[in-house]
Amino acid sequence: MKINVLAFGVAKDIFGSGEVSLEMSNDATIYNLKYLLEQQYPRLKQLSSYMVAVNNEYALPGDTIHERDEVAIIPPVSGG
Amino acid sequence: MKINVLAFGVAKDIFGSGEVSLEMSNDATIYNLKYLLEQQYPRLKQLSSYMVAVNNEYALPGDTIHERDEVAIIPPVSGG
Amino acid sequence: MSAESGGIDVFIGTVRNQTKGKKVLKLDFEAYEPMAISEMYKIAARAFERWPVQKILIHHRTGLLQVGEVPVIIAVSAAHRDAAFEACRYIIDTLKQTVPIWKKESFEDGDVWVAAHP
Amino acid sequence: MSAESGGIDVFIGTVRNQTKGKKVLKLDFEAYEPMAISEMYKIAARAFERWPVQKILIHHRTGLLQVGEVPVIIAVSAAHRDAAFEACRYIIDTLKQTVPIWKKESFEDGDVWVAAHP
């Protein structure tokens, strides 16, 4: 399946874009997604940490991603 | 010496006036003043507590009152 | 507010429409004004000693207030919010204990000076 | 504010002119807007569960802000001030931890996404 990944803050700078596309297997997890992204964008590993959100909720590493899910990379937040 | 005593809040109701005059000896203390006032206005003793201020500062029972001091009865405060 | 300020905590007291379930019609505030001002300065001075705060505002109205009106406003600015929150809380708590201001609540069956009697 | 309200605590965040001694020229805030709004609702819901508060306002700006401008405002009303202070403090602390909003600080020598790197 094709997964579109939104990027914000420093992640947008690292991807060079606010959205990137990945080809993943149908049972892919957040863990798999992070691995793939870090292969393609090694600077992600230099962040102090980052989370992944699926459909506007923070996701856990074992959570599965489904086609048409809204997936987003959430670098350390700094609002307020 | 003659001491003028300002009254606020419920103390003003008890004295029936915002200011009363007392004749006291020259070495009178806050303790003496409270005793005298409670003789003249027994309802003062029904208050949950009250303080005396001298020249805009809270006074202690042993503090001495001097002529021309600004003396005030401070019932329990309830601002805010 | 100054350019070094990172946050302001503001406490706004409002006249509530009831006290222990009894309907409050209005409030009347009386102050021993020179001493009230002097006590407010003391509270601000103590807050400046205890927390790294930048500016402090303490405002208190007197006279007749209706439900929903604002008798008291405290505002504290600081470089960091911890200090602003803690100092603001300290100031309103201490004001209620030491500043010579008295509140008379008017109910349908009469008036009561708050906290005057046990 | 409602007639049952006895106090409102308001936190106003401001853009400071420096970070760790370095002069800040301006800030740029970016939000993942639908998730940011959903996280703010969650924080408010948790505050309503934990404290007897009446109304909650959470406001956050995005885009370019100058020194002294106000990125964030939190306001909480309650019958009693303890709840207003505690809930307001909880909301700003939690917002800074969970709401997907990012701040880029511009210094004279370049821009930095705050907290992005160790």
TrEMBL record, chains A, B:
<dbReference type="InterPro" id="IPR012675">
    <property type="entry name" value="Beta-grasp_dom_sf"/>
</dbReference>
<dbReference type="InterPro" id="IPR016155">
    <property type="entry name" value="Mopterin_synth/thiamin_S_b"/>
</dbReference>
<dbReference type="InterPro" id="IPR003749">
    <property type="entry name" value="ThiS/MoaD-like"/>
</dbReference>
<keyword id="KW-0547">Nucleotide-binding</keyword>
<dbReference type="GO" id="GO:0000166">
    <property type="term" value="F:nucleotide binding"/>
</dbReference>
<dbReference type="GO" id="GO:0006777">
    <property type="term" value="P:Mo-molybdopterin cofactor biosynthetic process"/>
</dbReference>
<dbReference type="Pfam" id="PF02597">
    <property type="entry name" value="ThiS"/>
</dbReference>
<dbReference type="InterPro" id="IPR044672">
    <property type="entry name" value="MOCS2A"/>
</dbReference>
<dbReference type="GO" id="GO:1990133">
    <property type="term" value="C:molybdopterin adenylyltransferase complex"/>
</dbReference>
<comment type="similarity">
    <text>Belongs to the MoaD family.</text>
</comment>
<protein>
    <recommendedName>
        <fullName>Molybdopterin synthase sulfur carrier subunit</fullName>
    </recommendedName>
</protein>
TrEMBL record, chains C, D:
<keyword id="KW-0501">Molybdenum cofactor biosynthesis</keyword>
<dbReference type="GO" id="GO:0030366">
    <property type="term" value="F:molybdopterin synthase activity"/>
</dbReference>
<comment type="subunit">
    <text>Heterotetramer of 2 MoaD subunits and 2 MoaE subunits. Also stable as homodimer. The enzyme changes between these two forms during catalysis.</text>
</comment>
<protein>
    <recommendedName>
        <fullName>Molybdopterin synthase catalytic subunit</fullName>
        <ecNumber>2.8.1.12</ecNumber>
    </recommendedName>
</protein>
<comment type="similarity">
    <text>Belongs to the MoaE family.</text>
</comment>
<dbReference type="GO" id="GO:0006777">
    <property type="term" value="P:Mo-molybdopterin cofactor biosynthetic process"/>
</dbReference>
<comment type="pathway">
    <text>Cofactor biosynthesis; molybdopterin biosynthesis.</text>
</comment>
<dbReference type="Pfam" id="PF02391">
    <property type="entry name" value="MoaE"/>
</dbReference>
<dbReference type="InterPro" id="IPR003448">
    <property type="entry name" value="Mopterin_biosynth_MoaE"/>
</dbReference>
<dbReference type="InterPro" id="IPR036563">
    <property type="entry name" value="MoaE_sf"/>
</dbReference>
